[in-house]
Design goal:
3 strands, 117 residues, 3-stranded antiparallel beta sheet, mainly alpha
Length: 117
Amino acid sequence: MSDPAWRQRALLHLPADATLLLHAVEEAGELRLDRAPDLALDRRAITRARGILDRRLLVHSATVHTESGHHATLLGPWSRWVSADVARAAKRLALAEAQDTLQAACAGRANALQPPG
């Protein structure tokens, strides 16, 4: 998700809460939401902001098991998630070609590129 034009469109009209969370993720490198720094956001605002960032594919999101056995959301930039080999291969793809490849891999299941309708 490193195409500058695509990223600009995804950032367009990003709500303030989502912008704040995105900056926190980018600054931290990865951010576990149950340990989120004081973002001046309540739990609902963090959950809403996370959903927006997920839908716009601005962060990589994963669920991790905490030390106490609960689940927590871990957000990070795509650049930390993808391997160097995959990043090199992706640079050779046009955005539309990459999206088509992902759609094919999803085999018709709902995904962030084509939400359920």
